[in-house]
Amino acid sequence: MTLPDASAPRRTAAFGFIFASALMNSVSFGIMIPVLPNLIKEFAGGDTASASQWNTLFASVWGLMQLFVGPVLGMLSDRIGRRPVLLISFAGLGADFLLMAFAPSLAWLFIGRVINGMTAASFSTANAYVADVTKPEDRAKTFGMMGSSFGFGFLIGPVLAGLLAGPAMTAIFGSFALRLPFLVAALLTFANLVYGYFVLPESLAPERRIPRFDWTRANPMGSLRFLTGHNDLAGLASVGFLFQIAHTVLPSIFVLYAGYRYHWNIQNTGISLFATGALGVFVQVVAVGPVVRRIGERGALLLGAAAGSLGFALYALAPTGMIYLACAPVFSLINLMQPGLQGLMSRRVGPQSQGQLQGANQALQGIASIIGPLVFGLSFAWAVRHEASLHLPGLPILISAGLMLAAFLLAIRFGHAPATKEAV
User: Fold this and answer.
1) In this predicted structure, what is the pLDDT of residue 313?
2) Mean pLDDT over the full length of the chain
3) How confident is the model at residue 122 (pLDDT cuts 50, 70, 90)?
4) Can you tell me the distance from the alpha carbon of 367 to that of 398, in angstroms, rounded to the nearest whole number?
5) For the chain, what is the largest distance between any 2 Cα atoms, rounded to a whole number of angstroms?
6) SS3 state of residue 262
7) Using DSSP, how many helices (H) and how many strands (E) does the chain show?
8) What's the CA gap between 77 and 72, in Å, rounded?
9) Which domains, and CATH codes, for the chain?
10) Angle at 36 between CA 170 and CA 164, to 5 degrees
């Protein structure tokens, strides 16, 4: 079976297509966030510390797959185009969600996370797509819009998960209600696959693709060499790497942390994620463009990093759930960081290397997804077990605040505009 012709003149690559595609995919991920840790906890016999350790293992394996497969898919998108890689990713994610919906044991959940990690290139490939169809000077604003599509997904998904796994559905479906969100996520992802197959046009013209696939560069070491071989990319990538590690803290522990410290159930957690997600979307949709016009990509990067460090510190020390939510407006400004960073990085490479750049970023995210859950999951488990003497369950979030402070200091050194608008 052949793909429909995506190069026909009547089908012009447009940001709207990829925005809708990313939105549907993000909703699927958002559904999973508050449910998967509770399913793991159910398999772990209800022990919070044990569930945290299992959750850490799952997240680390997912990151390991990203580390090795991310660069391959990034370069593959430079060779054959963005669209086929996106379709492969959607198929893998849909299979993973189905597996989680019917998994009889932790071992089957583990297999699903391996499949997911191998195919979860949709976000990085979507960013390469955006770089293809956007002028260099407009990319920070457009990356902010892409961030809002992810934000909308994480805004809608947790609330939908809370409803699907809540008491009303439990009364109808019994214990399967906890898995029902995964089934809905699978349906959304497969709908995304169909949408991409029939509607999404290709963004990378054949004459702008790399002539051959090079295995020496399609691996973690090749990705790191790519970053060190371009104008200050390594410094900016280091800023992004620290951000990526710090950013894994809430996906790694938040559901268990909120239940332990604030006694929130799955519905309260979903409402909290909705509220904080709404603030993030507001910043990405409304604030990024004006902020970049006013203070530039560098300014947005620095402001986002500083707000992230302060916001994490406030989250870690908040003694009640209401105070935690009151700190959310400060933390929401962290959403200025990625658009500024992506804008600065994408302007340092040409169109034929955007996929490789995003693949390299995906590899770094894979490393961060290994390190972060290990650091935060294990430190949370340790803090819970030593709560009587330590009195600091927010220890992992405080570690994230320190990482963001280090990212801010690095951004001061490397976060300047390139000498030219776009490297050739």
Assistant:
1) 95
2) 80
3) low
4) 20
5) 68
6) coil
7) 20, 0
8) 9
9) 15-197+230-414 (1.20.1250.20)
10) 30
Angle between helical axes of 36-43 and 249-261 (0-180°, round to 10): 60
Q: What's the mean pLDDT in 249-271?
A: 83
**Token pair belonging to 401:** 């605040």
Structure tokens that stand for 72 in this block = 């391959």
Instruction: Quickly tell me which residue has 């457009």 as its tokens.
Output: 142
- For the cut 70, the answer to whether the pLDDT of residue 418 exceeds it is no
Whole-angstrom CA distances from 243 to 185, 295, 369, 407 are 27, 21, 11, 7
Distance CA 344, CA 349 (A): 10
Single-letter residue type at 351: P
Q: What percent of the chain has pLDDT over 70?
A: 90
Which residue pairs, CB below 8 angstroms and at least 24 apart, start in 315-324? Answer: 315/394, 315/397, 316/392, 316/394, 316/395, 316/396, 316/397, 316/398, 316/400, 316/401, 317/394, 317/398, 318/394, 320/262, 321/258, 321/262, 321/264, 321/268, 321/272, 324/262, 324/272
Distance CA 289, CA 404 (A): 23
* Residue the block writes with tokens 């490397």: 414
What is residue 14's predicted lDDT score, i.e. its pLDDT? 62
Q: What average pLDDT score do residues 49-63 get?
A: 77
Please report the pLDDT score of residue 421 as a whole number: 45
| Contact criterion met (CB below 8 Å) for 383 and 393 | yes
In 3D space, the residue among 251, 350, 204, 181 whose CA is nearest the CA of residue 33 turns out to be 251
Q: How many Å apart are CA 335 and CA 58, to the nearest integer?
A: 26
The mean pLDDT value for 66-75 works out to 77
Distances (CA, A) of 61 to 10, 51, 106, 110: 43, 15, 13, 8
Which amino acid type is present at position 63? G
Taking the alpha carbons at both ends of the chain, their separation in whole angstroms is: 36
Count other C-beta atoms under 10 Å from residue 329's C-beta.
Answer: 14
Vertex 359: Cα angle to 353 and 360 (nearest 5)? 90
The predicted-structure confidence for 197-226, as pLDDT tens digits, reads as follows 888 788 788 888 878 877 776 677 776 777
* Claim: this prediction has a pTM higher than 0.90: no
Q: Is the pLDDT of residue 169 over 80?
A: yes
- The pair phi, psi for residue 10, each rounded to 5°, is -70, -10
HSE of 364, CA atoms in CB hemisphere, 13 A: 27
